[in-house]
Each structure stands twice: as C-alpha cells, then as structure tokens.
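[recover] target loaded
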C-alpha cells in the first residue's frame, strides 16, 4: 500500500534539490561548472546559500528519521535497511562516477578504494548521513527509555562541537561533515520526537509568531551575510561559525513553519534522492557538450539548460531504474517485490530522502 506523502516536506525537498543542482551547475570555483572566478551575482548565489543547501537536506532527513529501537533485533534490522538504502547506492553510483569521469577526462582522482572510505565528490553526504544514523540508532538503543533525553542533550553538545570544528585526518567516512550536519539533523529529529511539529504547525497562534521570529532572523542574517560578501563588515559567516549555525537553523525552521506547499517543487522533492545521486552526471555531461559544441553560449542559457537537465533527467532515470528489482536495489537502494517491479513500481513511498 502506498504511503501518503507530505506535500510540505516534499516541497522543501524540492527547494533543496533546486539549490543543490544550481550550485553544481555554477560550480564551486573556476575549474568547475560555469568556470566563474569573478565576484559577481553567480558567485554570490553560491555563497549566500552555503548555510542552507546541505543543512536543509539534513534537517529534512532528521525529520523523517525513526530513531527509537525496541530491541536488538529491531536495531539490526534498522541498520541493515539504512545500509541498503544509503550504502549500496554509495558504492555503486560513486564507482560509476569515478570510472565515467576518469575515462572522459583521462585521469582518476586517486586510487579507487579511497572513494569508499574518504569523502569523494558529492557522495560525502551519504557517508556522513550513514555515520549519523547508525550512531543515533545505537545510542537510542543503549539509552533505552532515556532515548528522548539523550537526543535532547545531544543537540547543544553537537552545536558546541560544530563551533569547535575539529578536523580529523584522515577524514574517514566524512566524519568532519557529519559533525557539520549533526545539529541540523537533530533539530529536524527533535521536532518529531517532542511532537512539536503537531503542536505548533496545527495551531496558527503558535506557528505564526514563531514563523515571524525565525523569518526575521533569516532576513537580518541574510542581509548581514550579503554585506559581508560585499566587504561592508567583518562578521564571521564561515561554514562552521555561530552566525552560520544560526542562519542555517533559522532558515530550516522558518521554511518548516511556513507550511509552504507548491506542486512543482513537491513533485521534484518526491525524487530528491535520485536527483541527489545522479544530477552531476547530467550537469557535467552537458557542460562537456557545451564546451565542445557551443563554447560561446550565453551563461544564462547554459545555466537554465543544465538546471533542467540536472533535475528532470534523474527523474526519468528513476522511472527506468525502478522497472527492475536489481537496478532499483543497486542504484537507489530500493527493495521491490516482484509484483512492484513488473508494474514499473513508482516506489515513491520509499523515495523520501533517507
């Protein structure tokens, strides 16, 4: 039986997908994406949303995460399911990416074994999320009836570690990124753990004042960050700064409280995991095609074409992959029964970002 979707959460997933794909289309430096090195509006877009893109993904992952475990058998089952959903596509898709881009560009970024234990391209997010989820599952199991208290205490502790920003070398399984994402993941998780989502979202006189408060924080911090980018202040808006944490957390909460629901973004959000896994294949492929066939094309035209390709071609690919059980499992981590595979399996009940 299909599981009902939450249109609001899917809308926020769709927004996160848009920000992520746009970032990779523009590129994080002159050697990637649109090869932009100038201090211009394109670079401004990537810099101003650095505190929103992946924190929003992690906040939503935490919100849908089921942390409480009844017994040891349930713990083992939960870990196996997370490793299937995240770990199998991590290995398969990152290997495909490594081989494709290595052969296309004529060089490989180090030995292949490193991509499975060290951060590699955008797959670092899956490694960090596996660490967080498995760690929280084990922690909640060990805490037993005090699991809710454990999760609550972990939030301020995770914020302190976030600000301390320890850097482990080697960065095994993207542990440094897990430290960065954990506060946002826990904020989303605690909304469900304490039923704050139902208590606040369903009561306008509670929700609207909080929405205005967090919205004000976002507006002020956005303005300060913009002024910082233009050189008008010297505030610290680094990725793991107090202002960065406040900016990211306030934005996630404001968007959550907004109850924003827009069908196009909700549709895209239903395929957020597939878009995350495969968008770079299509955006980088289109970049290569433009460089060869239309090197002088306007950057705005390329941006629009690559953005659409990075969002909608993975959706088409998803529909192809879920037609067979083995491809759904290997590339998406989805376990389909034979009947679902024969029907082409929309599989949207399992498509939520893990």
């Amino acid at each position: 039986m299909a599981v009902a979707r939450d249109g609001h959460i899917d809308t926020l997933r769709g927004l996160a997908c848009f920000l992520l794909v746009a970032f990779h289309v523009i590129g994080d430096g002159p050697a990637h994406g649109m090869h932009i090195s100038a201090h211009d509006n394109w670079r401004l877009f990537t810099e101003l949303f650095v505190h929103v893109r992946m924190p929003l993904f992690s906040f939503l992952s935490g919100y849908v995460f089921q942390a409480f475990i009844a017994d040891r058998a349930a713990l083992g089952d939960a870990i196996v399911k997370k490793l299937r959903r995240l770990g199998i596509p991590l290995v398969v898709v990152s290997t495909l990416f490594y081989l494709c881009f290595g052969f296309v560009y004529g060089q490989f970024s180090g030995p292949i074994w490193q991509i499975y234990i060290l951060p590699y391209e955008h797959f670092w997010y899956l490694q960090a999320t596996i660490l967080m989820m498995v760690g929280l599952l084990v922690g909640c199991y060990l805490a037993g009836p005090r699991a809710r208290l454990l999760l609550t205490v972990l939030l301020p502790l995770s914020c302190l570690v976030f600000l301390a920003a320890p850097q482990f070398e080697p960065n095994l399984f993207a542990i440094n990124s897990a430290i960065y994402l954990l506060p946002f993941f826990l904020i989303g998780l605690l909304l469900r753990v304490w039923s704050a989502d139902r208590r606040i979202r369903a009561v306008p006189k509670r929700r609207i004042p909080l929405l205005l408060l967090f919205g004000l924080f976002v507006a002020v911090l956005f303005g300060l960050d913009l002024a910082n980018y233009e050189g008008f202040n010297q505030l610290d808006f680094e990725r793991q700064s107090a202002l960065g944490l406040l900016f990211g957390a306030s934005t996630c909460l404001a968007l959550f409280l907004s109850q924003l629901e827009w069908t196009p973004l909700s549709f895209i959000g239903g395929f957020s995991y597939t878009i995350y896994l495969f968008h770079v294949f299509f955006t980088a492929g289109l970049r290569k095609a433009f460089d060869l066939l239309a090197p002088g094309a306007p950057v705005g035209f390329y941006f629009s074409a690559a953005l659409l390709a990075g969002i909608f071609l993975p959706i088409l690919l998803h529909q192809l992959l879920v037609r067979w059980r083995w491809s759904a499992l290997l590339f998406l981590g989805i376990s389909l029964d034979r009947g679902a595979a024969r029907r082409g399996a929309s599989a949207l009940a399992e498509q939520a970002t893990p």
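[recover] notes: Residues 7-350 form one domain.
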